[in-house]
Amino acid sequence: MADTLDPLSPSINSPRVPGLMHKLRMRFGRSPPPRPPGEGYVEFGEFRTEAPGVKKVGTFAGVFCPVVLSMFSALVFIRMGYLVGNAGLLVTLGQFALAYLIVIFTVTSICAISTNGAVEGGGVYFMISRTLGPEFGGAIGTLFFFANVVSSALCISACTEALVENFGANGYLIGSSGGLPTSWWFSFLYRSVLNALGLAVSLAGASLFARTSLAIWFTVLVCLASAFISFFVTSPGMIEKPDTNELVNTTSFQYTGLSKETLYSNIYPSYGRDYSTTAGDRVDFASVFGVLFTGVTGVMAGANMSGELKQPSRSIPAGTLWALLFTALCYTALTLLSAATCSRELLQNNYVYLLPINVWPPFIAVGMLLATFSAGLSNLIGASRVLEALAKDDIYGFLLRPMVSRSGNPVVAVLTSWLLVQIGIMAGSLNAIAQVNSVLFITSYFAINLACLGLDLASAPNFRPSFKYFSWVSALLGMAGSAGLVFGLRPTYAAGAALACTALVLALHLLSPAAADPKWGSLSQALIFHQVRKYLLLLDPRREHVKFWRPQMLLLVSSPRHAAPLIDFVNDQKKGGLFVIGHVRVGELDGSGDPLAEEHKYWLKLIDHLKVKAFVELCLARCVREGAAQLTRLAGLGAMKPDTVLLGFRDDHPHTDFFRDPQSPYKTCEFELEGGEQVFPWRGVQTRPSAAEYVRIVRDVLCVGKNVCLCRHFHMLDMAAVERRSGHLKYIDVWLVEPWRASCEDAFTVRALFALQLAAVVRSARGWQHLRLRVHHAPPTTGVMVAEGGVSWCASPAAAPGLPAQAAPGRPVHDRLEQLLTLLRIDASIHCASDWPALEESGRWQDSSDENSVLNRIPMNYLNK
């Protein structure tokens, strides 16, 4: 006997044209060049052996000092007068308290993530991406990269402002004897030179900056200490306004020293105008808070240095928390002393008031330059490290691959960050840049708290941070506070940032090569599992009702190489129900491991290739029948279990390899192994079920109360022609005829109702809706015939129980069937297979070996109606 098709792997055909998104993704994510071992994606919590000379920086120099310097930045020496003079003592302290409250909640989240496993380079981006997955992590990492770029531009602008105030024409350290030109273009030149100097230090290596940050911090601390001392020892007097202030005509303002009257006059807010802007913009609460918040955005500077730290999981929490406490004390003391010694006019019209009242003004000048330049440099290095981490993770595919460096210092990433900072410094005004900077960092804080809240709510077993002061409440408060603050202060900027992040998440989900990488862990999977488990328990099979019935399909497949089109067709037929692809592998456990473990990943890849929504169930059994019985009983979970089993028809049609066929829309090389070996090979003669075993498989399915569908001739179906509405494809035919015992009552059995339901489901699927249903029934030639008024009908009682009176026996078949279709809300035309008796006489069903012999004898007069 000729080889027959395995009944569990029928042949069919259904072309599919690759979509635009697939083509873009393939282009966007083309294969990267080979990387040395150890490069590329690194799992969160993966401990790796470090090369000699790497990560030599400790907590104090690597975290505490960079955080303090980044937080001081432009605020401590250059903008305290702007805050206190406009917002007053109480509002300023309140704004500091609000900012620190949000930052403390965020720091607890940072500490929780950083103590939940090993941390690599990329800092906060690394932590978030390993928590939220590549789409959300990549979007937030991009946001954080631009936040560091904008922050660097802000600090460079502040450093230039300090340079001009001290060494420009009529500067405090130059006087009236010349000085640097102060026009806009010269200021831009100074910013460019400072940015280039930061580039040179960055190219020398971040470790060099980390080791020198201790000296810079000590120098800034000395300068700040001199400012505190000066409040107590400097005598009262008049302080001249800077030449950059052209809004007022008054030339000098009063410094009173410690005075109760001065303190009372500065308690409440009195908003003025900002002389540092070209138009002298009016100051309000939001603009003051936007500048103030730049003094707490440097809290992640230590986390950005994670790639250069000895023990990131210990250094980041300890160094960051101590830096927060230190800066909070400094800000509070400076706010109180400024409000108690300086008149409001002095604070509003001279932002660098600390310099002329200092016991030795060069102290403040050095502090201004060092604090702002080191903060700008820290942000530049942080931005380059985040960009390098995005490139290593292949988030943007080939666009960022040049950013990866094998030398340890990402030169191209540094150059790119420097170029963007150079564009940012063209804005000029420090206060204008500060508004954008604050929005970006607050949004980043929102994402950090969201990541930790999701981890805690998902009850992930591996989320066990050693930092004990984190809880879901702190994460929720930090997230809510960040969202409320950013939308309350700058709703336009906040909406723009939210829309940009949303668009970026969608783009990365569709196009990023990392999105399809199984090595990425995604918080969404943990949350989905948590919710699905809960609702599966609520889904009670005892409460099922026929009104809400939908097909739950189990398709038994031997080799998808010749069953791929049928898989595609059943995917259209499931109508939102369960679709399980089952496969039986003949064999036994030999004690060496699971023989299906390696094969399972190829089946999952098959699901992706065919773009179907299905589950995969693999079974190891001694024979196909035994495995099919196991799958029929055990596939599914809870109330979601298949009610219909589909098998291929056992015939002699030759195999078609749709994965190798050049004309097949399913053609792919993904399932070709080295050495010519194939994934999903054909079944051998020894494991192929016999005709008797095939019949027993069908009987087993019926015995457990499942529906059975035998799928045949699907290789003749051109789904591409269906979808493009080809003119020769017009109908979906439903044959309500029992081939072995045709009767007019066949149209009213349970089997017929099931066939009508499946046909209606297929027609409702997208791509099939333009086809019309045709229902064929047998002529009334069998059973008890009744004649009345020249009309004959069959009076056989073999109809399905529960039919309405209009469809019950005793009326013409056409009328009854028409009434039944109306009741079922199925739009179909009705046709009688009038030549069926002649077909029965001429056909030899039991002896036919040609699969098309019977099909060829079906009269064409009703096939072509």
Automatic annotation (TrEMBL):
- Pfam families per record: AA_permease, SLC12
Topology class, membrane = Multi-pass membrane protein
Entry's localization field: Membrane
Does Membrane appear among the keywords? yes
Coiled-coil ranges (or none) = none
Q: Which GO terms describe its biological process?
A: cell volume homeostasis; chloride ion homeostasis; potassium ion homeostasis
- Does the keyword Glycoprotein feature in the UniProt annotation? no
An example of a Gene Ontology cellular component annotation for this protein is:
membrane
Database matches in InterPro entries: AA-permease/SLC12A_dom, SLC12_C, SLC12A_fam
The SLC12A transporter C-terminal domain is annotated at 565-652
Return the protein name: Solute carrier family 12 member 9
Name all Amino acid permease/ SLC12A domain ranges. Answer: 64-554
Q: Name one GO molecular function term.
A: potassium:chloride symporter activity
Gene name in the database record: LOC106118698
Q: Where are its TM segments located?
A: 57-78, 98-119, 140-164, 214-233, 285-307, 319-340, 360-382, 411-433, 439-457, 469-487, 493-511
Q: Which domain of life is it from?
A: Eukaryota
Gene3D superfamilies on file? Amino acid/polyamine transporter I
| UniProt keywords, alphabetically | Membrane, Transmembrane, Transmembrane helix, Transport
Give the UniProt family note.
Belongs to the SLC12A transporter family.
